[in-house]
Design a protein that fits this description.
Elements lengths: L1 H17 L1 H4 L11 H29 L1 H11 L2 H8 L3 H29 L5 H30 L1 H20 L6 H11 L11 H11 L1 H30 L4 H29 L2 H20 L3 H28 L6 H30 L3 H21 L11
Helix pairs in contact: 1-6, 1-7, 1-8, 3-4, 3-6, 3-11, 3-15, 4-6, 4-8, 5-6, 5-8, 6-7, 7-8, 7-12, 7-14, 10-11, 10-15, 11-12, 11-14, 11-15, 11-16, 12-14, 13-14, 13-16, 15-16
C-alpha cells in the first residue's frame, strides 16, 4: 500500500504537464507549427529518464530501493520552480531533464519493489496495481492541472501542484521499508546449485537483455514503440485537438480519459496475464492501440475521439504491465533491478525517439495526422514482432 501511494504521487508529477504545456506553449515563446521545438521537452525527458532507469536498477541492486526512491523525489524539487520562472521554452526543456531524473528513480523503484514483494504467479497483478495507480494519477493530474491553469494560469498552477506533490511524497517515504532483503532468499530458492551463475555485471545483463536474447530484445523494442505512441498523445494530440477548435478543458478530458482507462484497466489486465500468459494480452494490446490511433486520425469531433481514447487506453493496459511482467519472468531475481532497468531504459528512450520522429514528420507536413498514421503502423509492426519472437510466458503457480 505504501509503494502504491508513492506511485500515485509519481503519476501526478508527470500528469500535471500533459494537457497544459503543449497547448499553452505559446506562453513560453513556441511559435505555431514549430512541432520539433515543441517536442524537445519530451526529448530531454526521454533521454534522461531512459538513462536513469538503467542507473537506478544498478544502484538499487547494490544499495537498496528506498535510497534511490528518495533521491528521485529530491531531484523533482526544481521542476515546478523552473516552470514558474521560465522566460522561454528552453527552461521547460531543462525542467524536463529533472522530471526524467525524478521519474527514472521513483517509478523504477516503486515497480521493482512491488515485484520484489510478489510471488512468481502474482507479478502481473503487482505490476498492474503499480501502473494502474500511476496512470490513474496521470489522468487525475491532467484534469486538475488543466482546470487550475484556466483559473490561475499555467505557471502558478503547476508551481503549487508540483511542490505539494513532492513534499507530500517525501514525507510519506519515511514510512517505507526497503524490499531488497526479500530478493536474496527468493534468488536462493529459485536457482539450483548446479546452475551456472548468471552474468553479474550490468554490462553483461544489458547486452543480453537488449540484443542477445530474442525474447527480451523483442520486449525492449515493444517498450520503445509504446512510448512513441505515448509521445504522440502527450505532445501532438493536444495540438491536434486545439487546431480542431477544442478548448483546454475538453482536451484535458480526452487525454485524461486515455490515461484513466489505461490506469484502471491494469487492475485486471496484469492479473489476466498471470492466468493466461503474457503473449496474448501484449499482442492484443498493440493491435487495439493501433486501432485507437487510426480512429482518432479519421475522426472529426469529440464523439469519435472519446471512444478512440478509451480504446487506446485499453490497448495500453493490456500491453504495458505485461511487458514488464514478462521481462521479470525471464530474469533471475538478483538481476531483476538491472534487467528491468535495461528494459525501462529502452522503453523510455522511446520518448526521445518519438519526439524526434513524430515532431519531425509533423513539422515537414505542417499537420499532425501523418505522424499519427506512422505511429499506428509502427505499433502494428511491433506487436507482430513480439508475436513472432516471444514465447507464451506463463509463470509457475508457486509462492515465493
Amino acid at each position: 500500500m505504501l509503494q502504491a501511494t508513492q506511485v500515485l504521487f509519481v503519476g501526478l508529477m508527470i500528469g500535471m504537464e500533459r494537457a497544459v504545456l503543449p497547448t499553452m506553449s505559446a506562453n513560453f515563446g513556441v511559435k505555431p507549427g514549430a512541432f520539433l521545438f515543441l517536442a524537445s521537452f519530451v526529448l530531454s525527458f526521454g533521454l534522461v529518464k531512459g538513462a536513469l532507469n538503467l542507473v537506478a536498477g544498478t544502484l538499487s541492486d547494490r544499495h537498496g530501493r528506498k535510497p534511490v526512491l528518495i533521491a528521485g523525489w529530491f531531484a523533482g524539487l526544481p521542476i515546478p520552480l523552473l516552470i514558474y520562472f521560465a522566460p522561454n521554452w528552453w527552461w521547460i526543456i531543462v525542467a524536463n531533464v529533472f522530471l526524467g531524473i525524478n521519474q527514472g528513480f521513483t517509478w523504477t523503484m516503486t515497480v521493482t519493489s512491488q515485484i520484489d514483494l510478489a510471488a512468481s504467479h502474482q507479478r502481473g497483478l503487482a505490476v498492474g496495481i503499480n501502473e494502474a495507480v500511476g496512470y490513474v494519477a496521470v489522468g487525475i493530474a491532467g484534469f486538475v492541472a488543466a482546470d487550475l491553469s484556466l483559473a490561475y494560469g499555467p505557471r502558478i498552477a503547476l508551481l503549487g501542484f508540483g511542490l505539494a506533490t513532492i513534499v507530500t511524497a517525501l514525507a510519506l517515504s519515511i514510512l517505507l521499508r526497503d524490499t531488497l532483503p526479500w530478493v536474496r532468499p527468493e534468488h536462493a530458492q529459485s536457482v539450483q546449485p548446479s546452475e551456472p551463475a548468471p552474468p553479474p555485471g550490468w554490462g553483461a545483463v544489458f547486452m543480453r537483455v537488449s540484443f542477445r536474447d530474442k525474447a527480451t530484445s523483442a520486449l525492449c523494442q515493444g517498450g520503445v514503440v509504446n512510448k512513441i505512441a505515448d509521445t504522440l498523445v502527450w505532445v501532438l494530440f493536444p495540438i491536434f485537438f486545439r487546431r480542431a477548435g477544442l478548448k483546454l478543458g475538453m482536451i484535458g478530458l480526452i487525454t485524461g480519459l486515455y490515461a484513466m482507462v489505461w490506469g484502471l484497466s491494469q487492475l485486471w489486465t496484469g492479473h489476466l496475464a498471470d492466468r493466461v500468459g503474457r503473449k496474448v494480452p501484449i499482442v492484443t494490446g498493440f493491435m487495439l492501440l493501433a486501432v485507437g490511433i487510426a480512429i482518432t486520425a479519421v475522426g472529426t469531433g469529440p464523439a469519435v475521439w472519446f471512444p478512440a481514447a478509451a480504446v487506446m487506453g485499453l490497448g495500453m493496459a493490456l500491453l504495458y504491465p505485461n511487458l514488464i511482467a514478462a521481462m521479470s519472468d525471464l530474469t533471475p531475481p538478483l538481476l531483476r533491478g538491472k534487467a528491468l532497468g535495461t528494459y525501462r531504459y529502452w522503453r523510455d528512450t522511446g520518448y526521445a525517439i518519438g519526439a524526434l520522429l513524430l515532431g519531425g514528420v509533423a513539422q515537414l507536413a505542417d499537420e499532425v495526422r501523418p505522424a499519427m498514421w506512422l505511429t499506428a503502423a509502427l505499433v502494428v509492426i511491433s506487436g507482430l514482432w513480439i508475436a513472432k519472437d516471444v514465447r507464451l510466458v506463463q509463470p509457475h503457480h508457486q509462492k515465493s
